[in-house]
Amino acid sequence: xxxxxxxxxxxxxxxxxxxxxxxxxxxxxxxxxxxxxxxxxxxxxxxxxxxxxxxxxxxxxxxxxxxxxxxxxxxxxxxxxxxxxxxxxxxxxxxxxxxxxxxxxxxxxxxxxxxxxxxxxxxxx
Length: 125
What we know:
Layout lengths: L2 E5 L3 H11 L5 E5 L5 H8 L3 E5 L7 H13 L8 E5 L5 H6 L4 E4 L4 H12 L5
Parallel strand pairs: 1-2, 1-3, 3-4, 4-5
């Protein structure tokens, strides 16, 4: 069982992503504000963070950079980050924000689960 933190401001996307992990006995936590991600990572220690490109007042790349800066300062552990891109051209921002993987939306649930399992290092169910 893994703990996965999903950050997106759109409720339909949070629900869709949480549903994609539902059958795998994973604990899925959601936040709808980019500024809340750091505190959620500190409190819950997720195995994976899934970020949308837009998360309220703070985009996914900015949240990823914030997590990496906190990690570099020793205030947070390293956690794998999966960034969901709105368009292919956004992969430039993903590379610059030190995420571990990127997927282009709309994301197939099976592809999402396989990528999450690869990143976490657990078998696909």
